[in-house]
């Protein structure tokens, strides 16, 4: 999108996030969650009704909110497993301590 960088200082796409996930680039749930929030902030910046980007659509702000809410629900549902994985990654636990489900 031609004018995107005029509105967004730190671009990030879902494709880039997928690449980071596949390469285990996220060191923590917090780092992953920060990128989710960056996606929302970028959507808000580019799709601001007061200064809309060339291809902007204010309804995409609602889509971004729904995306973040769904991600938060999924992270909450997997919280125990994610916390266990973080402990193992830090060396705080034995891998046998990880939940199976």
TrEMBL record:
Electron transport recorded as keyword: no
Keywords: Bromodomain
Span of domain Bromo: 1-54
Biological process per Gene Ontology, one example term: RNA polymerase II preinitiation complex assembly
Example GO molecular function: RNA polymerase II general transcription initiation factor activity
One of the Pfam families matching this protein, by short name: Bromodomain
GO cellular component: transcription factor TFIID complex
Protein's name in the database: Bromo domain-containing protein
Species of provenance: Pyramimonas obovata
């Amino acid at each position: 999108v031609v004018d995107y960088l005029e509105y967004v200082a730190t671009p990030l796409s879902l494709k880039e996030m997928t690449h980071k996930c596949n390469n285990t680039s996220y060191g923590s749930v917090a780092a992953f969650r920060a990128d989710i929030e960056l996606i929302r902030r970028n959507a808000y910046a580019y799709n601001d009704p007061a200064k809309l980007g060339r291809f902007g659509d204010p309804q995409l702000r609602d889509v971004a909110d729904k995306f973040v809410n769904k991600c938060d629900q999924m992270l909450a549902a997997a919280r125990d497993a994610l916390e266990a994985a973080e402990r193992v990654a830090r060396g705080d636990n034995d891998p046998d301590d990880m939940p199976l489900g």
